[in-house]
Amino acid sequence: MKDVKRFLKSQVIRPYLQLPKIKIQPILAREGKPSVDVAEVAAMAGDNVIFNDLVCIKSTEHWNQVVSNLPDDVDAIMPVSSPCYPTEVWNEAPEVLVNRGLPVIFWPLIRFDEPDFWKWSAADLMRALGIEVHLVENCEEGVTLLRAMAVKKFIANSRMVVFGKQNFPWNVLAGGKMIRDSIGMQLVVKPLEAFREAGKKYSDEELLTFWEDHKDRYINQVPDQKELITALRTYFGIRDIMDEEKACGFGVNCYGELIIEGSRDVPCLAQCLAREEGFIAACDGDYCAMINMAMATMLLDKPCMMSNIYPLAYVGALTEHFGDKLASKEKDQKNLARFGHCGYVGVVSPEMSPSGKARLSDWGGTYELKRDGKGCGIDCDLAGNTEFTGMELHFNGKDVMIIHGEVVETTRHPGMPHCESTGLLRLDDLDFFIRHVSREHLVIVYGDCRRELEILAGVLGLQVQKVQ
Prior knowledge:
Layout: E1 22-28, H1 38-45, E2 49-51, E3 55-56, H2 60-68, E4 76-80, H3 89-92, H4 95-100, E5 104-106, H5 119-128, E6 133-135, H6 139-156, E7 159-163, H7 172-183, E8 186-190, H8 192-199, H9 204-212, E9 218-220, H10 225-245, E10 249-252, H11 254-258, H12 268-276, E11 280-283, H13 287-300, E12 304-311, H14 315-322, E13 336-340, E14 358-361, E15 377-379, E16 386-393, E17 399-412, E18 421-427, H15 430-436, E19 441-446, H16 450-460, E20 463-465
Parallel strand pairs: 1-2, 1-3, 1-4, 5-6, 7-8, 7-10, 9-14, 10-11, 17-20
Antiparallel strand pairs: 12-13, 12-19, 13-18, 14-15, 16-17, 16-19, 17-18
Helix pairs in contact: 6-13, 6-16, 8-10, 9-10, 10-12
């Protein structure tokens, strides 16, 4: 399960949901044999990377002219040595790199799959001058770096829609500017009525025809067929708004408005269906979690999910919220936490479950907001005994916490209608998580993806908080 890829109903997805291509300009310091074969790098880089023809520098003046006149669509410069000594032209005339403002990538020596240590001093000089430099450790990390640059470009040119009042701490109107200033993601706020109105034009027949083509990954146990139709109409309405906005993802403020007003057109199924079409979707309109999901999904092409995390050491808070301390039978109680939302583990996409299916039931409720048999919720197991990587982007748009742990099991809680299931997580260091926590919402992806996500965080200019 740690290697499972995200499920897409069709490989043809909307253009604004696709990872953009990036363009790299390789530059050879002087005539001679290049220290790195650019053709080999291009072969391993993947379809999202375009390499321009290698330019061989004839003089310092030629260097200044080449870098100054690079096309606007070039995303990074890859300097290549010949021979491998630290007297290259970029050391003699680095000012043009400062003025051009493009990242510089020093690729590893392919034959040995190790960094070119002659670039240590060049990289430090460039950084001191304010140039973004990547001295790549090995080819695998280099490929991740190139994909991370494409993800950065995707995020900087994307937008997400948040539906509902902004009355939780993840308040776009209060904090969205920090995200825009940091990574460029645009955040649009729409009222709940926007997707409700958009969904009205679809007939029950249209919705059920769509469902026939999508239902194979779901076990339908919704008590009332009308609730399923409402859930489908909710998705169609949300999808229409995202298409209008050319948005890559969405979230709905359920607990701050939709549910407490008595409505049950919850977007749980809408989230899963949206992901099948290449969108990003998270609970509660938490835009930071939505961006974390975009980071993981676009970089790794893996499914991810978010939910509330409850450290089991917080007995009083758990008892007050669930009417039960949700204790574990594990012998080693250290670093354990529950993972749950809306009566279930959270909105888990079917491909993250060992069965490959999710059960549709009525919305699960909470201890405070009683279950009423309405709505369409998602009940899906996480894969037990599976390592995960967790992320929390902070509201300041500058810090991201990356943690590691294990999904121990999915626990069933008999006799608790407001909490049928939770995930049991064991974090490597729960105290570290608590000291650096941003919100109760944690995004997880299967596998140990810490290094890949750290590389992406670096490309995005984020400061990583991690267990040392």
